[in-house]
Amino acid sequence: MDKVDYRKGNYRAVADRLRPAAELLADWCAPQPGHLVVDVAAGSGNVAQLCASRSARVVAVDRVREQLLLGRQDDDAIYWVVGDALDLPLADDVADAALSTFGVIFANPPDQAVRELTRVCRSRGVVGVTAWPDAGFQHAARQAFQEVGAFASGGHDHLAAWGTPERLAQRLGPVADEVEVCTGTLHATFPTLGDWWRSRATTPPVMTARECLDDAGFAELARRLQEAARQFGTETEDGFVLEEGGGLSRGARSGSLTRPARWGCSRSVRLRLGTGQA
Fold it and tell me: From CA 213, how far away is CA 53, in angstroms rounded?
């Protein structure tokens, strides 16, 4: 199998886990009331909804219709559009910002995806992207899926393409006059490691893998993913905490970057799941 089928499983579990990164990206890129923002590879629209809450006009684009329908249940004022990050269904120079939270990094070739982000932005528009690091839990999880035969080896490696601050800057460098990079950590808290796995087991990547593995293969995948989580997680008084690093990069055309009041690099954002706490 080459790709995750994002129509399967519980995508809201994924969206909830990633929302703090979307909040940081929206805060960092600071869309203003009336601005037109495009959320690219939007999923169910974390970034789109956050920007809409700032009174921006928002278009959310994703190739998976079912994910857009999830988002529309939450906010039907956003324009939800089926489309490809490599060929956005938008005219040139129409947006004030084009943003993507752990979405456009999966588009291949990445340089074409970046050109599309920039193409739809006006002069002085802002492009913002979040990406997983090339080390840490995401790397271990990718290896686990490949080694049990759930996903084919080779092909587009988003960790290699985007996974360091230097690569994040290099991706946007050719199309932006200024590029800045920030790093942070997502902390997801569950009562136990077992609760983490029960939540993870419902997500589209794991549900997609379940369909192509026999029982023994899926049991091995479960063992390896839990071992990876144990390696990068911590048992605390509050429960099991998994840490996942992330990088944010923003670039501007024609020197438009300004620092918002809550500016900060190497920031840590926290998400608590499975405990009934915000």
Answer: 42
Which of 82, 261, 76, 252 shows the shortest CA–CA distance to 178? Answer: 252
**Alpha-carbon span 143 to 137, nearest angstrom:** 10
pLDDT (tens digit, 9 = 90+) per residue, 17-61? Answer: 999 999 999 998 899 999 999 999 999 999 999 999 999 999 999
The pLDDT tens digits for 141-188 are 999 999 999 986 667 899 999 999 999 999 998 888 888 998 889 999
Rounded CA gap, 240 and 256, in Å? 42
Burial 117-133, CB ≥16 within 10 A → b, else e: bbbbbbeebbbbbbbbb
149 Rama class: left (phi>0) / alpha (psi -120 to 50) / beta: left
Please tell me whether residue 148 adopts helix, strand or coil conformation.
coil
Tell me which residue has tokens 């996974």.
163
Task: Specify whether the CB–CB gap between 270 and 193 falls below 8 A.
Answer: no
**Domains parsed from the chain with CATH numbers:** 11-272 (3.40.50.150)
Q: What is the DSSP string of 60-98?
A: EEES-HHHHHHHHHH-TTSEEEE-BTTB-SS-TT-EEEE
